[in-house]
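Notebook entry, cofactor series.
This is the third protein in the set we're modelling with a bound small molecule. For this one the ligand is zinc ion. I'm keeping the input format identical across the series so the outputs can be compared line by line later. Sequence and SMILES below, as received.
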Amino acid sequence: MAPLHDDDDGRPTTTNTGDEEMETCEAMRDLVRGYKTFRAAHFSDDGGRGNGATSSVKDTLRELSERGQAPSALVIACCDSRADPAIVFATSPGEVFVVRNVANLVPPYTGVDGAHHGTCAAIEYSVQHLRVPLILVMGHTQCGGAAAALKKYGNGPNADAGFLEANEETGEGFIGSWINLAERVVCEVCEEHDPDIRARMLEFELVKNSVKNLHTFPFIAERVKAGELEIRGAVFNVFNGTLKILQPNGRFATPKDEDASDKSASTAVAPPDAKRAREE
Ligand SMILES: [Zn+2]
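Returned structure with ligand:
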């Protein structure tokens, strides 16, 4: 067993700091370099306040460590490495509770059945135990999960059922099983839109469907009815870094202050707007 020593926070840790010689890949070395940058920026002697800031990530983390987390929102986003809620919303530690899965899908409530519903468990924890006042479902452009669902169901129900099916030999099949949640939405999008804009439309419609499914959970419906919980949707554009937020009328629009400074994004956009979809 590796010897222990006290770290600067007084808690025991192993002596292996990651600097010891160990065969590893470039990706792991990149992560360790990033970690060291994080430490230097936020845990230096001045506590990361060298730029004149009155508080620091170090202070925030220490305070959160002592009093626990109380995030102001649950964000449900895709796993895609280009659409990170912490970056898009410029959040600090403790501000948002994030759940990420393939294509930011929320299953409809079907009761507790013994299966391993990771997304539902995270939703329940944040809503019932952390009492978040907001849930935001954030989709994004060029979503691979949405594209896979479109490929599987794009020509109608089970038109290409062989795609992404379970393979006992390789152990694959989880993606195909997961995106079954998108089947109905894909079929609706295909009925309404031309092939060249279906992928874009689907990214918006999947967000709307996840928002809709959130309301099927009894504990969520109860808090929404009591006025304690708001549920919203949004789509992040990976190419230009803009965000369109789902409005009560079912359309997506950019935040108003951004509208004023960016005339090209000044119009509220509904998913069925084919012209807009092509532009983006
Ligand atoms: Zn995605």
